[in-house]
Amino acid sequence: MKIIISLSLAIVLVSCGQGNNDMATLQHQVDSLQKQLNHTYKPGLGEFMMGVQEHHAKLWFAGINQNWPLADFEVHEIGETVDDIKQYCTDRPEVKSIGIIDPAISSIDAAIKQKSVEQFKKAFTDLTNSCNNCHKDNQHGFNVITIPTGLPVENQRFKPGQ
């Protein structure tokens, strides 16, 4: 009986030792993956903001040309980029203020649904002011966003239709 208990104990100990080897292998894999993740490219806040700025300009021309499907697309692109900023730029203190844009986005959504150019222009002005207020709140007041005066791209039509 003592021999059986001793053998059983020996088997358990050997099995536990094998578990430590498996654990060490797993830890090595985790460390390796973490190292790779640390070196993975992650866009910076400025890159995201350049995207917002381009969609902001496209949104303006879509709205004033009453291309409501395009305006809807552009405002949602801005929203998606804001969501990406919240996810990928958590190390930036400015991100805490980005919610300042939400009411203006909602107003633009409503204007698009109403297909109202006047409501759109007011909501767009509010959006632009929200951007500038956020910049001021985060010591970037020197970066002033305006209502666009020229097309953001030359190879896109902003008027509705084919």
UniProtKB/TrEMBL annotation:
A GO MF term: heme binding
Membrane-traversing stretches: none
Superkingdom of the organism of origin: Bacteria
InterPro entries per record: Cyt_c/b562
SUPFAM superfamilies reported for this sequence: Cytochromes
GO terms under biological process: electron transport chain
Official protein name in the record: Cytochrome c
